[in-house]
C-alpha cells in the first residue's frame, strides 16, 4: 500500500514544484515598457511661389544653312588655268578665285566678233540693194505712166482716123510689158525688205553671241562678288571641264540662317506673332555669353512633326558652317500669373506638392512651357494656389498627400 501511494505522490509533488517555480518566475520577471511607433519625417527643400509675367522658352534643334549658296559653273569647255583658293577659306569681295585658260575664252570671242562684223556687212549690202530696187521701181513706174499716156493718145488718134489699129496694138503691147516690169521691180523691193529683216535678225543674233562671249570671258576669270567662304572646290589646275560643270561653291558670310523644326503646339502663337509683327527671338549659349537669333519666317510646307522656322544667324556667329547642328531656346509670348519651378518639383506632367502644416498636399497645375533660370530649364506652370505658398522642390519617389516632411527653404 505504501509503495502504491509513493508512486502517486512523487509525480504530483514534481508537478506542484514545477508550477510553484513557474508562478515564482512569472511574478519576478522584469516589466518591458510599451514600444511607441514614431512617424518618419522626410527632409525636403522648398520654395515660395511667386507669380510673375514670363515668356516660356522652347528648346529647338536646328541646322545651319545658307540662303545664297552659289555654285559657279564653267562658262565654256576648257582647261582650268589657276585655282587660287581652298575649301573652307574666307575671301573678300573682288578677290580672284580661279580662272580658265585664256585661249579657251578669247578664241570664241574672236569668232563671235567676226560673225557680228559679217552680219553688219550683210545688212549694209541688203540696204544698198534696197535703195537700188526702190529707185528702179520708181523709174519703171514713171515709164509705166508714159506707156499709159501713149495708149490713150493712140486711142484718141484712132477716134479721129489719124492712126492705124496696128499702132494702137503696139502701144497696148508695150503697156502690158511695162506693167510686168513694174510688178517685177515691186516684187524685188518687197523681197529685199524681207532680206533686210533677216539680216537684222542675224545681226541681233550675232550681237547676242558676241555679248555672251564677252560675258564668258569675264566669268572665266572668277572673282568673289562679296565677302564669302568657300564651301567646295571641285577642280584643280589643269583639269578640263565641260560647259556648265560646277567648278566651285561659295556662300556669303551674312547669308547664314538656322533651320529648326517648330513643334505644332507652337505654330499658332508663332504665326500670330509674325502676322502682328511681334519680334520673337531665340537664344544660343556660347562659351562666354548668350547670343540672340531673330525669327525671320516659317517654311512654306509643313510635315506631321511641325513646321521649319528660319532664324537669322548674327555676325558674331559667322564662324558657323552650313550643316552644323545647334541647340537654341525660343522665347515665346509672355504669360501672366505664372510660377517658375524646377522640374524636380513636377510629378508626371501636371502635378506638384505644396507644404501645408508640415505635410504634402497634391495640386494639379498646367505646364505652359519652360523658362531659363541660372542656365537651367525650369517648368512654367499656371497654378491653382495662392502666391506665397510653399512648394516642395525635392523629388520624393513616395510622395503622396499627407506625407510628413521637414522643409529647408531654398
**Helix/strand/pairing class, anyone?**
alpha+beta
CATH topology group of the largest domain: Helix Hairpins
**Helical segment count:** 4
Strand order of the largest sheet: 3-12-15-14-13-16
Shape: rod-shaped
Reported for the largest beta sheet, the result is:
6 strands, antiparallel, barrel
- Going by CATH, the architecture of the largest domain would be Orthogonal Bundle
Total domains:
4
Q: What is the typical, i.e. mean, pLDDT?
A: 87
Organism: Thiomicrorhabdus lithotrophica
Protein name: Biotin/lipoyl-binding protein
Keywords: Coiled coil, Membrane, Transmembrane, Transmembrane helix
Family: Belongs to the membrane fusion protein (MFP) (TC 8.A.1) family.
How would you characterize this protein structure?
The chain crosses the membrane at residues 7-25. Belongs to the membrane fusion protein (MFP) (TC 8.A.1) family. Residues 187-216 form a coiled coil. There is one protein chain. The radius of gyration is 52 Å and the shape is rod-shaped. The strands form 6 sheets. Strands 3-12-15-14-13-16 form a 6-stranded antiparallel β-barrel. The chain has a 4-stranded antiparallel beta sheet with strand order 2-17-21-20, with no helix packed on it. The protein has 4 helices and 23 strands. It has helices spanning 2-28, 102-159, 165-219, 264-275; strands spanning 42-48, 52-54, 57-66, 70-73, 78-83, 90-91, 96-100, 221-223, 228-233, 240-241, 246-252, 256-262, 281-285, 290-303, 306-312, 325-331, 335-341, 351-356, 359-364, 366-373, 376-382, 390-392, 405-409. It has 410 residues and is of the alpha+beta class.
Amino acid at each position: 500500500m505504501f509503495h502504491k501511494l509513493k508512486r502517486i505522490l512523487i509525480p504530483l509533488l514534481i508537478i506542484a514544484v514545477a508550477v510553484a517555480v513557474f508562478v515564482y518566475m512569472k511574478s519576478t520577471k522584469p516589466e518591458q515598457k510599451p514600444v511607441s511607433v514614431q512617424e518618419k519625417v522626410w527632409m525636403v527643400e522648398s520654395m515660395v511661389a511667386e507669380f510673375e509675367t514670363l515668356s516660356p522658352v522652347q528648346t529647338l534643334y536646328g541646322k545651319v544653312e545658307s540662303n545664297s549658296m552659289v555654285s559657279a559653273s564653267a562658262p565654256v569647255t576648257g582647261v582650268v588655268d589657276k585655282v587660287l583658293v581652298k575649301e573652307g577659306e574666307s575671301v573678300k569681295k573682288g578677290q580672284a578665285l580661279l580662272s580658265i585658260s585664256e585661249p579657251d575664252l578669247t578664241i570664241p570671242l574672236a569668232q563671235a566678233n567676226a560673225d557680228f562684223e559679217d552680219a553688219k556687212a550683210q545688212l549694209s549690202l541688203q540696204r544698198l540693194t534696197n535703195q537700188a530696187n526702190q529707185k528702179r521701181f520708181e523709174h519703171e513706174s514713171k515709164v509705166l505712166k508714159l506707156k499709159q499716156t501713149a495708149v490713150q493718145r493712140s486711142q484718141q488718134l484712132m477716134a479721129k482716123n489719124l492712126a492705124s489699129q496696128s499702132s494702137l496694138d503696139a502701144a497696148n503691147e508695150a503697156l502690158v510689158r511695162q506693167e510686168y516690169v513694174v510688178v517685177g521691180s515691186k516684187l524685188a523691193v518687197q523681197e529685199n525688205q524681207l532680206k533686210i529683216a533677216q539680216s537684222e535678225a542675224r545681226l541681233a543674233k550675232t550681237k547676242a553671241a558676241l555679248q555672251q562671249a564677252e560675258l564668258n570671258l569675264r566669268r572665266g576669270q572668277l572673282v568673289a562678288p562679296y565677302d564669302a567662304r568657300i564651301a567646295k572646290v571641285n577642280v584643280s589646275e589643269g583639269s578640263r571641264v565641260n560647259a556648265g560643270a560646277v567648278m566651285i561653291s561659295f556662300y556669303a558670310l551674312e547669308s547664314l540662317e538656322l533651320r529648326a523644326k517648330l513643334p505644332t503646339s507652337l505654330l499658332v502663337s508663332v504665326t500670330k506673332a509674325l502676322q502682328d509683327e511681334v519680334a520673337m527671338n531665340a537664344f544660343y549659349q556660347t562659351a562666354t555669353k548668350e547670343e540672340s537669333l531673330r525669327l525671320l519666317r516659317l517654311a512654306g510646307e509643313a510635315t506631321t512633326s511641325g513646321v521649319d522656322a528660319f532664324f537669322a544667324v548674327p555676325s558674331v556667329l559667322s564662324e558657323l558652317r552650313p550643316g552644323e547642328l545647334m541647340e537654341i531656346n525660343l522665347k515665346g509670348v509672355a504669360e501672366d500669373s505664372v510660377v517658375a519651378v524646377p522640374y524636380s518639383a513636377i510629378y508626371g506632367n501636371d502635378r506638384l506638392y505644396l507644404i501645408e502644416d508640415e505635410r504634402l498636399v497634391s495640386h494639379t497645375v498646367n505646364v505652359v512651357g519652360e523658362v531659363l533660370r541660372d542656365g537651367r530649364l525650369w517648368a512654367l506652370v499656371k497654378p491653382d494656389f495662392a502666391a506665397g505658398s510653399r512648394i516642395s522642390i525635392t523629388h520624393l519617389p513616395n510622395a503622396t498627400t499627407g506625407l510628413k516632411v521637414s522643409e529647408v527653404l531654398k
